[in-house]
Amino acid sequence: MADFVGAVDQGTTSTRFMIFDHAGSEVARHQLEHQQILPRPGWVEHDPVEILERTRTVIATTLHAAGLTARDLAAVGIANQRETTGVWTRGTGVPYANAIVWQDTRTDRIASAMDSSGAGVVIRARAGLPPATYFSGGKLRWLLDHDDRLLADAERGDAIFGTIDTWLLWNLTGGVSGGVHLTDVTNASRTMLMDLSTLDWDDELCGFFGVPRAMLPRIEPSVHRYGVASPLGPFAGEVLIGGVLGDQQAATMGQACFAPGEAKNTYGTGNFLVLNTGTERYASASGLLTTVAYQLGSAAGGAPAPAVYGLEGSVAVTGAAVQWLRDQLGIISGAAHSEDLARQVDDTSGLYFVPAFSGLFAPYWRADARGAIVGLSRFHTNAHLARATLEAICYQTRDVVDAMSADSGVSLDVLKVDGGVTANSLCMQLQADILGVPVSRPVVAETTALGAAYAAGLAAGFWRDTEELRANWHEGRRWEPTWTEDRRAAGYAGWKKAVERTLNWVDVS
Questions:
Q1: Could you give the CA distance from residue 509 to residue 506 in angstroms, rounded to a whole number?
Q2: Euclidean distance between CA atoms 200 and 350, whole angstroms
Q3: Is the pLDDT at 301 greater than 80, yes or no?
Q4: Residue 507 CB burial class (10 angstroms; 0-12, 13-18, ≥19)
Q5: Residues of the chain with pLDDT > 70: what percent?
Q6: What are the respective helix, strand and coil percentages of the chain, to the nearest 5?
Q7: How confident is residue 509, by pLDDT bands cut at 50, 70 and 90?
Q8: Is 261 strand, coil or helix?
Q9: How far apart, in whole angstroms, are the C-alpha atoms of residue 93 and residue 175?
Q10: How far is residue 110's CA from residue 239's CA, in Å, rounded to a whole number?
Q11: 45 forms bridges with which residues in the sheet?
């Protein structure tokens, strides 16, 4: 048996490859950013070929740095930015266009039309999602509408669709030479095209968006023997790809949230709070999403376990707001500098920043919203803006936590956190203060990659079961709340007023 498991963590701004041992400890990693293509206001694209090249490079570099080969890996898992939509030709592997990123809002009129018709009711009931720009179905419809070749090719099965997991799977397992066209239930559950009860593509949902089923990948469990990576690829030898999950579901697995009522919050480009609800599906009345948290397969090839569902609160812009301070405003040199700058002031002195660059996601679902900085006076400095940006991350999380409590009746005793922003100690302290509960970060904060590794390792028999994975979880640091209840209430009341100022800015009717 090989001693390690690998994981591709393909995110919105970068791709990393990480290697873990049996205890779930990191052995090696390498990470590369990719270009954010912004052709028009509200449009966000990625070059899928660049992402594939970055993936190959980080795999090869990590293996070389660790002195390992493919033979040392029991399996590899893939975690990916969800909803980001691509189409390519089966015969050549050439994309028809750049991938449309989950943050992109060009499909606002498609989503609005769905929501105002009877289709919206069906989509909510079967897919567990509100019609929104966030999800893949509308993005795929837009691509079909804007390329005369694409629809005819799709109906013949020559043009194929995939989120980034499918694109990587297809290429790493051979591409035009027999690459597998597959996805997992967690990614499929983010398309508005899959029925949560059957875990399969739904003809009526596909019909709403005019999507030919011939272009859709086959859906498999998250833990599954997907295929063998080509020896011509970056592994320099064959290795099993044994697990695929959307990034937030991967983090749920990496945080060992295997029991109903357990939840995690991931801080990355956006924030994503997922509550495990077990094998029962709950329709949200508070603006949350019903989604598949994961589905375990069988290392022996038997029938998969039932799907485990979750309630999710998705926030579009959190870490991306810090990136905006760096790239668009130029007031910080990097993410770490945001903490140093924000610490120069004790509070924001009434300044609020609502980074609704892509509208507002959970729990509001307002595509008409746009970003706003409110409460400005000549007194305010870039330090106040930096601190308001960190507070915006935390206030958006509170919006979701309150909605989740209303839906589930579960009040969090502690918030388990992970992701890159958790390296910002001030932000995590603000999160504890704004929520009024402790915040706990595990020893391995990059739980997205760890969860993908766990899925792959389960498929390969590297780990026996989820209880063995739970034993790997250890707390690394905890932040306790320090604000008074009065300060917490006043701060949140100001935030809600700021959110109101962002609404009705864009006409999406």
A1: 9
A2: 49
A3: no
A4: exposed
A5: 97
A6: 35, 25, 40
A7: low
A8: coil
A9: 7
A10: 41
A11: 37, 100
